[in-house]
Design goal:
16% of the residues lie in helices and 49% in strands. It is an alpha+beta fold. It has a single domain, classed as Thrombin, subunit H (Beta Barrel). It has a 6-stranded antiparallel beta barrel. It is globular. The mean pLDDT is 87.
Length: 100
Amino acid sequence: MADWTSLLNGLNGAALAAFGREVTYSPESGAQTAIRAVFEPAHQAEENSPGVYAVLFVKLSDLPQAPARGDEVTVDATLYKVFDIEADTSGAAVLRLRQV
């Protein structure tokens, strides 16, 4: 029987394979890299300005280093900045992004 973490890793890999797209991840310090991630451009309205943020689902092992606030993501020539990170125990994370 597989353990919970390995099942989640398999599910994360399947989601990235089915719905992922290539984006460019640029940490504040370090080299940028192309990764596969699931991007949702207008995820949820915020009470404060600017009003709407996007989300990016990633496998942490695909990133050159741990994500941090201020890192940048380029999706289809549009630049976003990471403002919040929600990591889980399976090695994946949801990054909340604001368009620059």
